[in-house]
Amino acid sequence: MREHVIVSSTTDSETTARELAAQAVEARLGACAQIVGPILSVYRWDGRVQADPEWRVEIKTAADRVAALVELIKQQHNYEVPEIIATPIEGGSAEYLAWLVEETRPVDR
Question: What protein family is recorded (predicted)?
Fold first, then answer.
């Protein structure tokens, strides 16, 4: 996996999306998060095709923080099987990517 990653998930409300984003950043598992929505998701669940509004949370993080971030999302999510997808960042502003790593490091106190 590349050094920098975007972890995305979808939720059933803007409030839930904001909570997941805030928890990830507060725990220093993500440097920042964007919330996109509402979007319309079409999917099969319990043998039926369904369509529901959702909000996507996109969290920028360092690769070595992905596993812990995935666990946080699983623990806090209200879906039985939440969408959690990690996509490597292939490149970008060196300054931004350095900031991303710095913000996902534990703070020495």
Answer: Belongs to the CutA family.
